[in-house]
Design goal:
Blueprint (H helix, E strand, L loop, with lengths): L8 H7 L9 H7 L8 E4 L3 E5 L9 E5 L11 H22 L3 E5 L15 E6 L6 H6 L8 H12 L11
Antiparallel strand pairs: 1-2, 2-3, 3-5, 4-5
């Protein structure tokens, strides 16, 4: 089967290595560097949450420690707790907004794992029952159904003032 490609001009600069001229894109996000497009959803004194600019699925989030770390074993106890607290809160918001069937949650540590950014960050990727559509099967291409900026707006409204409930709708 021939693999067709959908042209996504907004990502061309990224895959060709034409990225903002910053030492670390996540540190630049935290500093609000004008060279980096910000999709920051929320922040506290230890971590910040950003939407992935090139998401795998709608609502693809990353929880990032403010300190430039390369391994989750470097977290302080307070950072670990903050990440756990935010994970629960974000899962509740994603459940309400997108009603995913599951999640992939994890880290890519090191280049061999697929990490393209050294600064450690926890991915939360909502997964859906019918993710693979006819374009994926027939055309061999991936279709994104929502701009991450839209997800940013929706999630910002959802998490403002909310508390993690631990409830999951299915």
């Amino acid at each position: 089967m021939t693999r067709n490609i959908l042209f996504v001009p907004s990502k061309r600069h990224y895959v060709r290595g034409q990225r903002p001229k910053v030492d670390c894109i996540l540190c630049a996000l935290r500093r609000k560097d004008p060279e980096v497009e910000s999709l920051i959803l929320a922040a506290d004194k230890l971590v910040f949450i950003t939407l992935n600019l090139f998401p795998y699925n709608p609502g693809h989030l990353m929880i990032v420690p403010n300190r430039h770390l390369t391994d989750p074993r470097q977290y302080t106890a307070a950072e670990s707790k903050a990440i756990e607290r935010w994970t629960n809160r974000l899962l509740d918001a994603l459940d309400e907004l997108y009603e995913p069937m599951g999640y992939n949650i994890g880290y890519n540590i090191g280049a061999s794992s697929g990490a393209s950014i050294e600064h450690i960050h926890l991915h939360i990727v909502p997964r859906f029952k019918n993710e693979v559509g006819f374009i994926d099967v027939i055309g061999g291409a991936r279709v994104h159904v929502e701009d991450p900026r839209t997800a940013l707006d929706l999630l910002a409204k959802k998490i403002s003032g909310s508390r993690a409930s631990g409830k999951r709708k299915r």
